[in-house]
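Hi again,

Forgot to attach this to my earlier email, sorry! This is the prediction with 6-chloroguanine bound. I've pasted everything inline since the attachment limit keeps bouncing my files.
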Amino acid sequence: MELIIVTPFPDLVQSPLNTSIIKRAQDKGIVDIKVIDLREYTTDKHRQVDDYPYGGGPGMILKPEPFFRVMDAIGKDSVPGQEVILLTPQGSRYDQSKAKELAGTERLIFLCGHYKGVDERVRELATQEISIGDYVLTGGELAALVIIDSVTRLQPGVISDYDSAMSDSFEAPGLDCAYYTRPEDYRGLKVPQVLLSGNHAEIKKWRTENALRRTRERRQDLIQSIQEQVD
Ligand code: 6GU
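Structure tokens for the complex follow:
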């Protein structure tokens, strides 16, 4: 899978991409991640990527030309089934089912918005617009990283224990249960006895109940949508 981030701030994404599981996925050749500096696709000597909005008002707007020139360079339709994603708080909200859908795409191109926004014509280049939640970020880079992380871990061979991914919160129909590792007793905080029992049926039952209780306490909205799926 090919992942391309187009941004005026390439430094912002480098360290997360070169660490831990995402780095290993690249080293194994499972994902190929490229970062394109939007400034390299400007034509003026100041390499300016933003400008004042027509009609006035506060804030700067990302200019259309650098984005169009990047897309000319990487081939707008060169990969069948590719998706061009504009990251914006106005996009549709990202979730695990969207992650699964995008995980099956041959090539994803991320266009990162910044400042007050992007020139409306940049939307012509995108096949979809995504937001990662109802809050405002300074730019689309962190959102692109969130999506890249979540689709990369779904690629076969990235996470060694497939079962570990499938029991995650949102893969299983609610939140995940609590986990413990050694020591058994840390400063008086004890591991539930059942997990030390070796009784696999009892452990499974405890985990199911623990997960359900958490979901009820923390995410009533999820209980409702699970209920609606059953009804
Ligand atoms: Cl994709 N971009 C920005 N700037 N803010 C956001 C977002 C994206 N998703 C949530 N907030």
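The two ends are 37 Å apart (CA to CA). The pocket of 6-chloroguanine is lined by residues 87-89, 91, 113, 130-133, 135-137, 139-140, 143 (CB under 6 Å).

That should be everything now.

G.
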